[in-house]
Amino acid sequence: MRIGLISDTHGSARNFRKVLDGPFKNVDLILHGGDILYHGARDPLKEGYDTSGLAKMINDLTVPILIAKGNCDSDVDQLVIDSPIMSPHVLLSIDDRKIMVLHGDSKTDKDLVNLVARFNLTLLVHGHSHIPRIRSSGQRLIVNPGTPTIPNPSSPFKKTVGTFDTADGKVEILDIDSMKVVLEGSL
User: Quick one: pLDDT at residue 41?
Assistant: First the structure.
C-alpha cells in the first residue's frame, strides 16, 4: 500500500491540488498531520489561499484521508470537512505496521520517541514545525513531511510532502514543485 503523508496545508487549495496531481497521484490512503485550513495569525495570506476550495477537495477525494487535529484546526473547520478532524491522534494498523498521526505542537523529540515505544509503532507521522525530517528510533521511523504551503525559513527544503510504501518500508519526502526526493529512509 502506498500512503501519502502531509501536514500543514494551511488553506492552500492550489498546493493541495499540486500534491494530488503529483506525489499523491497513485496513493491508496492519505494521512494528514493537521493545520488544514487556517493559515495562522503570524503568517500572511499566501497565493492560492482558498479554504472553501481546499475543504471541497478533501471532501471529494476518492481515496480515504485520516486527519489528526492541528493547533490551528477548530470546531468551525469540522463543519466544512466531512472526515473527522478533531482527534489529536490517529492510530491505525496496515499490513502489520502500526502507524500514529498527530500534529506534534505540544511534543518534544523525546515525547515522540516515547510514543513510538509506548504504542509499539512502526511509523509516527507529525507536523507543526514545517521542517521535513525523517528520524530513526530503533527499527522505527518518526517522520515530519514538512508543509506544501508555508516552508519554515530555517529549513533547507521548501514545499514538501511524503510517501510511505508499506510493502518495502520506504519513506520519501518530495519537493512538490520539482517532484525530487529530498529525504528518504526505510524501516
Answer: 78
